[in-house]
Amino acid sequence: MTLAPGSAGPESPGSEIEFALALAPVRSFADLTPHPGGGAFSFGSRGNGRSGIYLYDLLERVETLIVDDRVALGYPGSATGHAWLGGGSGLVYTSTEGTLLHMPLDAAAPRAWGGFTEVSQVARAADGEAIALVSGERRIYVVPNASHPEQAREVFAPASLPGEDYFVADPALSVTLGLVAFRHWRDTAMPWQGSAIVVTDFLGEVVRVYAEEGVMHSQPTFSPDGTRLGFVSSHDGHLRIRIADPLDGSEPLVTGTPGHDYANVDQGIGQRTWCFDGQGDGLFALRREAGFARLVHHLLGDQGRGLEIAKGFFDAPAVVGSRLVGVRQGAKTPTRIACVDVSEIHQDRPAEGFVKVKLVAGHRLFAELAPLAEPESHTTLTPPFSEMGMGFPAAEINTRIHRRWRAAEGAGRASRGTVVMLHGGPNDQSEVRFNHRIALFNSMGFDVACPDFRGTTGYGMAFVRALEGGWGLVDVADVASALEELERRGEIARPLVANGGSAGGYLSLRLAQRSSLGLAGAIAVSPVADPVAVDATTHRFEKSLHSTLLGPKSSHLESWLRRSPAADPASISCPLLVIQGSDDQVVPAASVEPMVEALRELGREVDYLLLEGEGHSFRLAGSQERELAATVAFLDRVAPWTAPAGA
Hints:
Elements (H helix, E strand, L loop, with lengths): L12 H11 L4 E7 L5 E8 L2 E8 L4 E7 L13 E4 L4 E5 L5 E5 L6 E2 L6 E6 L6 E5 L3 E5 L9 E4 L9 E9 L4 E8 L9 E6 L4 E5 L6 E6 L6 E5 L6 E5 L8 E3 L18 E3 L5 E8 L2 E8 L7 E5 L1 E8 L2 E7 L6 E6 L14 E6 L14 E7 L2 E3 L2 E3 L2 E8 L14 E6 L13 H8 L2 E7 L8 H5 L8 H16 L6 E6 L1 H10 L8 E5 L5 H7 L7 H6 L2 H10 L13 E6 L11 H9 L4 E6 L11 H16 L9
Parallel strand pairs: 33-34, 33-35, 35-36, 36-37, 37-38
Antiparallel strand pairs: 1-2, 2-3, 3-4, 5-6, 6-7, 7-8, 9-10, 10-11, 11-12, 13-14, 14-15, 15-16, 17-18, 18-19, 19-20, 21-22, 22-23, 23-24, 25-26, 26-27, 27-28, 29-32, 30-31, 32-34
Helix pairs in contact: 1-2, 1-10
């Protein structure tokens, strides 16, 4: 690969795209599930537009395809997508049509199981053969004996807790106690604004409800022997793990380091960031630390630092015999399924004593081929301000800067400029994970800045909720203030290019409207360009999100319009690249294209790439290459490389 003199990346756009594609993920992983026979686990995988379920033998280090295509998979790292039956002779899984199918290991094709419809999740009890499933996001069924799905019992339905409409998700079972636990929240609020853990018996009688006003509860999990129930709770303002005896009603035992989150706010269902250890007297959990993460072991009730097992993200952890498996990645670690031998856990054992073994690659290039650096963390202060009749307090903002991964000889920290990567959600975080786009931008000579503006997760629930009512105002102020201060310190260099998708695309457009920031360009992928139009078509899960972020539309319509990029295209003066999927159901193309046309009529420089057949995320062959090609060409035009003096 040829490098341009004084640059940090490939010489031609073609080789830059080839480089990025070589680092891009080719498959994602979900639903890591121990095989009942021991020594193996199954997982769901999606890649190149297809999905399947695989069985991995830890002794032979071999993966075998069990189910090929038409498998419904959740977000990468999620859980409860399939369950083993009959001691591991076969499994049931959710099809893309929302039905349950049974796939025996000795059969050539799956067959229908139970006649259920609209199934979103299925789970098996660790201490028995019972199965639980979610149907229509409103009903919970229990099958006490997996060999007889016709004996399924509906244990929770719309009449169980009367009131507003709701969601149920994430079932967990204990045969020992004869209980099923699941998550419940009203659809008049997002789950992190208030959600409960409901526990019923196998006949549908509600035994216990763990709920507090304004508190998030998630990830119910029973211990291996079925006697304890654990779940994540924001009771003290951070997402820590609580362990309870659901029969005696005693106060749950809190586990985890104070001041840290052990989960994310949920953008969907099936999140799994912790699990009980093999004995059930401790747990493995992912502790989030300002964008970074580490896997730790805590004894139940331990509120210290715990024992570090691995650095980086270790999603969907699951104990398989003497090993812990999970989806691991970090700034320098490509996505993979990895395992750690945890047969001997001692609280004084150093972290380097645990060897991480890579099992399944998620990337074409499965090696640390270059000195990719861990990002630097920088803290800035956004001063208090008032805008649109509202006052906002000061806030500390953390920004991680990914430096150029391969600097030219003698070039030092010289930079071509800075790409500002803006996470979506907007209640989410640009976590320190392997990111082929960051590697591409670094290789092109750009530093990459990832600001954690108000609303970002990982800093406690108060920081998440600090965006409520201020979307398009406080996030803009936080990012602009952070960039100005980091530039003053000499930590980042111009030109500045904003880059975000979905809600991050909205923020990218809002920053482009801020002329004082002086962006050289902005990239918006599937952006919320017109909140009013998007709100009219959004799915039920986000029914209340825009009202929470902007205020009720019935009483705050003027505020919605004043914060809508599409309502004021004339204020966008920098060059713009908009990339959109034609079949996007979350942010429809029809909500974006009027703004693009208005900008063109104003004579603004705007490129628009419509990817046919793509939804809110791009999965079809060729789409990723077209997206990268458009991005590289745009950056080359708005932020051309200028060799530093003396290079």
